Amino acid sequence: MAFHIKKTAISLFIILFYLTAAQKPDSLYINQEKEEVKYPQLQIKGLFQARYLVGMSKDVDVNGLHHSDHSGTDNNFMIKYMRVQLRAQISKRTEVVVLANLADFKNDPKSRVLENAYLKYTFSPKLAFTAGQFRPWFGIEETYPIDIIKSLDWSNQYTEFGKLGWTSFQIGLSATGQLNLGEIPFQYAVSVVNGNGKNQVNDNDNGKQYSSRLVFGLSEKYHLNLGLNGGVGEVFGKKIYAVGVDVSSLVNFDPRWSLDMQLEAKQATNHPLYFAANPETRSQNPDEYLIRGAYFLPNIRYEVNHRNLSAFELSCRYEYLDTNFRLNSNPRQTITPMFGLEFLKNYGARIQLGMQFDRYKYQVENTTQYDNNLFIIQVQSRF
Q1: Nearest in space to 136 (alpha carbons), one of 261, 244, 297
Q2: What is the pLDDT of residue 364?
Q3: What is d(CA 112, CA 131) in angstroms, rounded to the nearest whole number?
Q4: Cα 216–219–221 angle (5° rounding)?
């Protein structure tokens, strides 16, 4: 009898042991546990971009400067960008971004090299604040980096408005977000900046430049967006302004063929030109010195999806720019046809070939206001 009880107890112990060993954690309990996100999360990116330029106009160098003494360089290898970006996500809502262009060390780096240096705090998709040195939204081109541009470079208009303090890298504060106006989605940006460029220790006066941008999504199918831009400010006690309008669209004809289009126009007070004029003879109103520009950029893309070739693109940008159209008008028209081969997805590696044709209403010797034809080969790699 005792042997039977002992045998039964041993059997129950063995069964209990196997049941305990085979027991799995409760799946509901596992789902309730969340992995702890560790901060900071670091991300490093970079861009290498180089060019070979050949000037094809007599006595005009590769920078577009005319030389009546027949000097100047008509061909040149150059490194345009060697960018390194560090993005640090230091909390769920806070990120810090640093972007430097090491290629600027070949020139005087005093006001160069450091491009982005800002902190961004995101309350929600509807509201985020950015403080530091960044690119305030004032047009289409501020919304994407140089490495995915559809043409050779930024438009002439973008470059000039950067000198005016409305675009390119500026120091200040910005609020951005995405909302809905009924069934129409729209993005907004409101910025206040010093307006005297990047890497400045102090503002050069007590004035500030205030700008805003609204982008309305008019068609989801065709990615049709309408952008409205406006800004006011004060420079050395003088009132200035800037306005702009832009339209962009992306039409996908089929999975391989697509057409990307951009149209943008802007007008602003050309205050650097005003202050450069003789104070005794210039007008008291800075708005007599006005800059006006527009460009149209269509880009056709074909997805090849070969293991050695991802896609090819064909674009042709037309630009019109007049930096002083009221007092001394000499408009510049630029046509830039470009052909590009993309070897890695998302412009990871590509080669572009193209021409840049510049035409002025009046040609001025020994200046950059001179007709010019330039041949370009450009290579880039993103990492």
Answers
A1: 244
A2: 93
A3: 19
A4: 140
The pLDDT value given to residue 38 = 86
Give me the phi and psi of 145, to 5 degrees please: -85, 170
Per-position DSSP letters for 57-69, written without gaps between them: STTB-TTS-B-TT
Q: Answer for the pair 47, 382: CB distance below 8 angstroms, yes or no.
A: yes
pLDDT digits (tens, 9 = 90+) for 128-174: 999 999 999 999 999 888 888 889 899 999 999 999 999 999 999 99
Rounded Cα–Cα distance for residues 45 and 168 (Å): 20
Could you write out the DSSP letters of every residue in 165-176?
A: TSSSSEEEEEEE
Tokens 């409760």 locate to: 26
Compute the distance between CA of residue 283 and CA of residue 291 in angstroms, rounded to an integer: 16
366: β partners:
none
211 CB-contact burial (10 Å; exposed 0-12 / middle 13-18 / buried 19+): buried
| pTM score of the predicted model | 0.85
* Residues 239-289 pLDDT 10s: 999 999 999 999 999 999 999 999 999 999 999 999 998 888 888 889 999
The bridge status of strand 224-235 relative to strand 209-219 is antiparallel
308: left (phi over 0), alpha (psi -120 to 50) or beta: alpha
Helical residues (DSSP H) of the chain, grouped into ranges: 2-22, 27-32, 156-163, 271-276
Q: Which of 146, 201, 190 is nearest to 168 (CA)?
A: 146
**Cα–Cα distance for residue pair 370/92, rounded to 1 Å:** 53
Which percentage of the chain shows pLDDT scores above 70? 91
